[in-house]
């Protein structure tokens, strides 16, 4: 190797070392989470545009978590009911797109990141006589479909009333839920636009269904990052929340959301 070539190689090595040192210092300055010796298990659920057939917002966020934290991740796809059981036991570390309940707040760390209101999607011919939860309850021929362990937020008390009347049909996942809605096995479902837009295209929504928002005007429903208390002390959980909030502030969440909804819809979800 010539003297000039050797000098060039030495210079490149020096630049690489300086870059690595700078990058390491940057990571420390960001107060990033501590990576465990094993991969972090983030459970995904088949849930419309949150995750379906290998792609979705939750998968994009998991990839971004790994990139920003430097931690390795595993992303198994589990039924919703099993996910909560595994997180409580500490065999799953975290999940996304979770709705907050008082019970969950006692068992898990929950951090909000995305605003979206649950809506009732009902067959148009049934919607003619249904303008409220009370109207639905009064008509004993109307049935609701639901994914097991899915919490319906403001509408949960309404769903529980229907359960007592044996008017809820439970299924394991959203794919089956919307296929059964299409087959008229029940009359309505409750979901987020990011969910039902993945299964019902615009033409179907206009011709066959009506989306109704029964939540109070002032209510803001949020999707949450949920972490197990078994594996994360509060200080570490807060570091993941800080990483998540940084994704919102620097425009990353807007960019990821924009893959699935319009920019205007994405901006509204991040208000």
> How many strand units?
10
The helix/strand order is: HEHEHEHEEHHEHEHEHHEEHHH
Report how far apart the termini are.
59 Å
- The tally of helices reads 13
**Large-scale geometry:** globular
The level of helicity is 40-55%
Overall mean pLDDT: 90
Alpha-beta content class:
alpha/beta
Strand order of the largest sheet: 2-1-3-10-4
Radius of gyration: 23 Å
Main beta sheet strand tally, sense and closure = 5 strands, mixed
Beta fraction of the residues? Answer: 15-25%
Segments where pLDDT lies below 50 for 5+ residues? 18-29
Question: What's this model, at a glance?
Answer:
With 271 residues, this protein is an alpha/beta fold. It contains 13 helices and 10 strands. The protein is globular, with a radius of gyration of 23 Å.
Descriptive account of the structure:
The protein has 271 residues and is an alpha/beta fold. The chain is built from 13 helices and ten strands. It is globular.
What's the arrangement of secondary structure elements?
Blueprint: H1 3-29, E1 40-43, H2 57-69, E2 73-74, H3 80-89, E3 94-98, H4 102-107, E4 108-115, E5 119-123, H5 124-127, H6 133-138, E6 144-147, H7 156-164, E7 168-171, H8 174-182, E8 188-191, H9 193-199, H10 202-207, E9 209-212, E10 222-228, H11 234-249, H12 252-257, H13 263-269
Parallel strand pairs: 1-2, 1-3, 6-7, 6-8
Antiparallel strand pairs: 3-10, 4-10, 5-8, 5-9
List keywords for this structure.
single chain; alpha/beta
